[in-house]
Design brief:
By secondary structure, this protein is α+β, with helices and mostly antiparallel strands. It has three domains: 186 residues; 106 residues, Thrombin, subunit H, CATH 2.40.10; 80 residues, Thrombin, subunit H (Beta Barrel). The chain is built from 14 helices and 16 strands.
Amino acid sequence: MIMKLFSSRPDHPLGDAKELRRVLAELPADNSFKAVDEVYGWFESLQSADDFRLDHFFDVVSQLDEAAQPYVRLLTRTYVQTPQLSKSEERRLWTLCYNYWGEVASLYARCSDRFRQKPKDKGSEAFRSQRPLATARLLAARATQLKWVEYRYDPIGEDLWRGLGQPYLAAEADGYAQKPLQLYPSLPGLTCVAAQYLQALIFYSSSMDSLMPLEIELADRLIAHFKPGFVFANSCLPDCVWWVDAASGLPPVRLARQPVRALPSLRFLSSGSAAPALNELISSVELGKVPADLNLGGQYLAKVLLPVLRHLARYWAPEPPQREYPRHPVKTRLAVLQGFDDCFTVFAGDVARLGKERTAESWVVENVSLGGFGAGIDDLGSGFGGQFGSDALKIGTLLCLQPEGGENWVLGVLRRFSKDSTATARVGIESLSRQAQSVELRPRTTGFSATGTIPGIWLRDGGAPGETRVVLPGMSFNLRQSLEFMHDDRRYLLTPVELEEAGSHFEIGRYRESVAD
C-alpha cells in the first residue's frame, strides 16, 4: 500500500509496458473476430482507468487501436462481400464493428477532454503534439460508425453528428484542423482533421440509401480518392451545393434550403474538380481501364463499379437528381411478396397464386407515379431491414405488389430503403411491369426438348420495339444462349442482347423477340 503511494504506474494491467506488449503479441492472428473482441474488452476496461498520465493513456489506446486495424478491415470485408451470412452472424459482425468504433471514438475524445481540463500537466504537455492525431482518429471512428449505420439503413442520431462537428470546430479554433498527418501506420498518404470531417459530410450527401453494403463500401473509398477535389469553405462560394452547421446535431443539406441565419459554425461545400474527375473515371472504366492508384480494397469488375460511379456522379452534380415522373400523394394498403420464387408463382396464374396471396406483407403506399411507389412499412419484424438472409429485405429485392382493392399484380424492385426507427421504414419501389407473365424457357435447339427449362418472368410492357425483357433467376443469363418459350400456342424466340441488371437473386436480360411460324 505504501509503495502504491509513491508509484507512478497506473493501477491497470496495461499500465505495465511488458503486459501491453504481451497482450498485443497474443492477439489471435487466425481469428479476426476474437482479436477485435479482445481489444474491445480492453477498451472497455480503460474507460474507468483514471490514474494514467495523459500521454501514457493515449499511447496505450493508440497501440491497441493500431494492432486491431487489420482485423477490423478483414471483418468489414467479410460483412460486405459475403452474400449469404446468416442473420445471427450478420448481427454479430455488425454489433462488434459498430461498437468497436464507438469505443475508439470515446477514448480519443477522452484524451482531448483531459487535455482541455488540465493543459499544464506533464502528461498534457507531452500529449500536446499528439492532439491532431487523436482528433483525426476520433473523427475517422465517428465517420466509420456513420458508414456502419448506413449498412443497415438505420436513422442517424444527432449525437453522431455532434460527435463529428464539435471536435472539428475545436480543432479549427486551436489551429490544427489542417495539420497533415498519417492516420495509421498501415494506411498510405496524409490526411488531417478537416479531411476526416469532410469525408463524413460527402458520404452522407451522396445518398447511400439506394446502395447495397458492398456498393456503400466502394462509394466510401471513391469519396476518399476524390475528396481532395472538393471545396470546403467557411463562406458560401458561388459553386457551393451543401451546407452544414457543425455545432448542431444536424446533417448537411442542399442549399436549396438556406441557413436561417449566419453562424460562425456554418460550413459550405461543393464537388469542385471532383465531379469532372469522376466523369473521366467513368469513361475510363466503361473502356475497361481502372487507374492503378485507385484503392478500392480489391479488384472489381466494371459492372460492379460503374453503378456506384454513376450514382456518385448524380449526387455530386450541381443540380440534384430530378424525379423522372411527378409523384402524387395517396394513402392505401399494398400487398407485397418478395423474391424471384414468389414472384414467379404469382405471375404463373390464378391457381398458382392462391396460396401465396395469403402470406403477403401489408405496406402503406404514400405516393405513386408512373415509375413506381413510395411506401411505409409499419412493422419491420425480425426478417426485414437486415443485410442478409433468405427473407431479409434489401436494396435490389424483386417484389410483386397488389394495391388494395385491385386485381392486377405489379412486378417491381426495391430501389431505396431507410429506417425511421427499429420498427418502421420508408421504401422506394420501381415498377418493372404491369403485364408480367411467368414462362418456362428452354435453350434454343433444333428440337423442342422438355428438359433443361429455366423459369422466367416475361415483361410484356416497357421494352424497345422488337425487343423484350425477361427476369431470370440469378446467374442464368447467357449472352451466347438463345431461348424459346410457348405462350397462347405461339412459340417465341429470344436472342440475347445484353444483361440489363443483376439484382438480389435475379437478373434482367434484354432480348430480340420474334414469333416462330
